[in-house]
C-alpha cells in the first residue's frame, strides 16, 4: 500500500490559490479524453493522477511538523532514564528485580 500524501490545505484559505486550483483542475479534466479509456479503473487512475499532480503543483505538500515540546530537556531525561534502566538491569544484587522477575 502506498503512503498517503498530505497536502498543505491551509493554502486553500487563500482565494487566489482556490481559483488557481479550480482553473487548473477544470482545464486538465477538459483536456483529458475519458471516452477513449475502456475500463473504469483506467478512468479513475487518470482522474486521480490529474488531481494529485494539480494538488502538488498548486497547493504543495504539507511539511512535517516537529514537536516543539520534545526538546533538549526531554532528550536528556530520556537518556538518563535509559542509563538508569541499564544500570538497574545489570545490578545482580537488586532485591526488587529478583521479586518481579
Question: What report would you give on this structure?
Answer:
The chain is built from four helices and no strands. The model has no long low-confidence stretch (mean pLDDT 87). Helix 1 (15-31) runs antiparallel to helix 2 (40-59). The protein has 101 residues and is mainly alpha-helical. The longest helix has 20 residues, at 40-59. The chain is 61% helix and 0% strand. It is elongated, with a radius of gyration of 27 Å. It has two domains: 9-59, no CATH class; 66-101.
Detail the topology: elements first, then pairings.
Blueprint: H1 15-31, H2 40-59, H3 72-90, H4 95-100
Would you kindly provide a brief summary of this structure?
By secondary structure, the chain is mainly alpha-helical. The protein has helices spanning 15-31, 40-59, 72-90, 95-100.
What fraction, in percent, of the residue positions are helical?
55-70%
* Mass-distribution shape: elongated
Low-pLDDT residue spans: none
pLDDT averaged over residues: 87
The main pleated sheet reads as: none
Key descriptive features of the protein:
2 domains; 61% helix; single chain; 101 residues; mainly alpha; 4 helices; elongated
Amino acid at each position: 500500500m502506498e503512503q498517503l500524501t498530505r497536502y498543505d490545505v491551509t493554502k486553500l484559505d487563500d482565494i487566489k490559490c482556490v481559483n488557481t486550483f479550480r482553473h487548473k483542475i477544470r482545464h486538465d479534466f477538459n483536456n483529458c479524453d475519458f471516452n477513449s479509456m475502456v475500463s473504469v479503473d483506467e478512468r479513475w487512475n487518470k482522474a486521480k493522477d490529474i488531481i494529485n499532480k494539480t494538488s502538488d503543483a498548486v497547493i504543495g505538500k504539507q511539511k512535517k511538523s516537529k514537536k516543539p515540546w520534545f526538546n533538549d530537556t526531554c532528550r536528556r531525561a530520556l537518556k538518563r532514564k535509559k542509563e538508569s534502566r541499564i544500570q538497574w538491569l545489570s545490578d545482580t544484587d537488586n532485591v526488587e528485580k529478583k521479586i518481579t522477575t
